[in-house]
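Below is a filled-in request sheet from our internal design queue. Each sheet records the structural input a requester submitted and the sequence that came back. We keep these sheets so that new team members can see what a complete request looks like end to end.

REQUESTER: design group, bay 2
PRIORITY: normal
MODE: inverse folding
CHAIN LENGTH: 46
BACKBONE (tokenized):
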């Protein structure tokens, strides 16, 4: 399960279903990458 599960209805209406899914995938990929980087930085500090 991704971090971002849904976006505001108004934005979804403007983007359409395909672009909404793409945006959610992009955000989840970015957030997961950022999370991994943060965990690595914290691990390196120990």
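RETURNED SEQUENCE:
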């Amino acid at each position: 399960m991704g971090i971002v599960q849904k976006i505001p209805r108004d934005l979804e209406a403007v983007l359409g279903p395909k672009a909404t899914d793409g945006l959610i995938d992009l955000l989840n990929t970015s957030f997961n990458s950022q999370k991994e980087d943060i965990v690595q930085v914290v691990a390196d500090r120990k």
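SHEET NOTES:
- The radius of gyration is 14 Å.
- The CA atoms of residues 3 and 31 lie 7 Å apart.
FILED BY: M.R.
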